[in-house]
Design brief:
Residues 1-54, 75-102 are annotated as: Disordered. Residues 1-14 have a biased composition (Basic and acidic residues). One of its GO terms (biological process) is DNA protection. Protects DNA against thermal denaturation and modulates transcription. InterPro entries: MC1, MC1_sf. By secondary structure, the protein is mainly beta. It has one domain (8-98): Roll (chromosomal protein mc1). 9% of the residues lie in helices and 48% in strands. The chain has one helix and five strands. It has a five-stranded antiparallel β-sheet, with helices on one face. A hairpin with a 2-residue loop joins strand 1 (8-14) and strand 2 (17-24). The radius of gyration is 15 Å and the shape is globular.
Length: 102
């Protein structure tokens, strides 16, 4: 895992507002965290991709992803604190956009 100094912050943009911040060493890592906040489907095959936009803090770059989430049963060797069903997410990068203004 990357040291905290290597982590970057990405703001989730919705209609020009930046509602949440996700951190990660890469934009994809932050996008995966954001994807798990979407409304999960019953399985990965039933999940409908949604567009998410993450602006890297301190820059004008917006990373655009298609993201989807689904619920599945936790593995048999799960820790005691983990629930029986877990939310998983996946993303597919669509591109990068550069903003004139933040």
């Amino acid at each position: 895992m990357a040291p905290d100094s290597d982590k970057r912050n990405f703001a989730l943009r919705e209609d020009g507002d930046e509602s949440s911040v996700f951190s990660g060493g890469t934009p994809r890592q932050a996008a995966l965290k954001a994807a798990r906040r979407l409304e999960p489907a019953d399985g990965e095959d039933q999940a409908d991709p949604e567009e998410i936009r993450l602006r890297e803090k301190g820059t004008h770059k917006v990373h655009i992803y298609e993201a989807w989430a689904w619920v599945e049963e936790a593995p048999d060797d799960k820790p005691d604190w983990m629930p029986g069903d877990i939310t998983k997410g996946n993303v597919s990068k669509q591109g990068v956009e550069h903003l004139d203004e933040i």
